[in-house]
């Protein structure tokens, strides 16, 4: 009798587990994994889309996987990551082209126009009544202004902050530096991190001092400071596309349709990044600010029904 009772309990537990498992399966909740690259703009875009799919569509939840550009692209190719909202794949053409060629990865188009990169300089240095170097029109003019950009560690030369140690862009800065024969009059400054590089720019700007060095947009810094990209220093435009794994076509076709229409501008990005920094927001708060204040942008990506659901969720 005791054995029969035990068997009945086991069968009941198995039946209950089976119902629970079927219920979870029938719920149809699909997780969309976004690649959370280390800079803020991509993380804000991830959370903009996360809010839309979780509140405007049925049956989805979002998750985020941290990583740098190359691992994220590889993750999309392999299927571990569903969406890369900011690919910047120009720096990894071989990996990108292979993923596209095999059909494992699909490029849905630009998130925003090609990301501008190059050497930037405060506008007040070259423009206005008090301009320090009104004759500085291009990189080739820099040798005449080495004293203006004096290197604090080597006052006999000027300094161009070429970028960040370990970043692939540093090779391009070095090429620009060498091609313009700057080695006799300038040193190449290399920062230990992106924040350290930004710190040199902001520090000089706040004092009204000259500064020249590598930076890129969109960023909070360029959203707040009036900087000009110096002609002759422009990098080839970086492609900032939205990439998805091929499985998304069947797994989440309605999400793919939104991603195909997803489009912002560099100015949009600079604005929300500057707001984020000024208000000490996290990336989710910046995403909500965008959704509340840029309806004319994001409502173009979704149906009227989805837009109404998202707006209602923002009010809640």
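^ Assign residues to that structure.
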């Amino acid at each position: 009798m005791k054995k029969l009772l035990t068997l009945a309990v086991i069968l009941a537990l198995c039946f209950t587990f089976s119902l629970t498992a079927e219920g979870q399966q029938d719920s149809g909740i699909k997780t969309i994994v976004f690649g959370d690259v280390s800079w803020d703009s991509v993380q804000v875009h991830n959370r903009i889309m996360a809010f839309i799919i979780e509140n405007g569509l049925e049956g989805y939840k979002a998750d985020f996987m941290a990583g740098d550009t190359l691992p994220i692209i590889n993750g999309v190719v392999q299927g571990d990551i569903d969406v890369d909202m900011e690919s910047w794949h120009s720096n990894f053409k071989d990996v990108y082209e292979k993923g596209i060629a095999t059909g494992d990865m699909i490029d849905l188009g630009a998130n925003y126009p090609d990301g501008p990169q190059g050497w930037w300089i405060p506008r007040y240095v070259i423009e206005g009544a008090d301009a320090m170097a009104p004759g500085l029109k291009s990189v080739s003019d820099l040798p005449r202004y080495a004293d203006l950009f004096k290197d604090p560690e080597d006052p006999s030369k000027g300094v161009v902050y070429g970028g960040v140690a370990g970043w692939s862009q540093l090779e391009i800065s070095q090429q620009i530096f060498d091609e313009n024969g700057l080695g006799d009059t300038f040193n190449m400054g290399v920062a230990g991190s992106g924040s350290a590089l930004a710190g040199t720019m902001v520090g000089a700007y706040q004092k009204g001092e000259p500064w020249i060095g590598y930076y890129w947009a969109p960023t909070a810094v360029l959203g707040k400071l009036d900087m000009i990209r110096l002609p002759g220093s422009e990098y080839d435009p970086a492609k900032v596309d939205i990439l998805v794994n091929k499985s998304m076509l069947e797994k989440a076709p309605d999400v793919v349709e939104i991603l195909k229409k997803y489009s912002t501008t560099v100015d949009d990005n600079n604005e929300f990044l500057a707001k984020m920094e000024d208000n000490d927001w996290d990336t989710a708060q910046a995403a909500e600010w965008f959704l509340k204040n840029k309806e004319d942008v994001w409502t173009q990506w979704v149906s009227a029904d989805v837009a109404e659901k998202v707006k209602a969720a923002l009010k809640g």
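Residues 136 and 144 are 9 Å apart (CA to CA).
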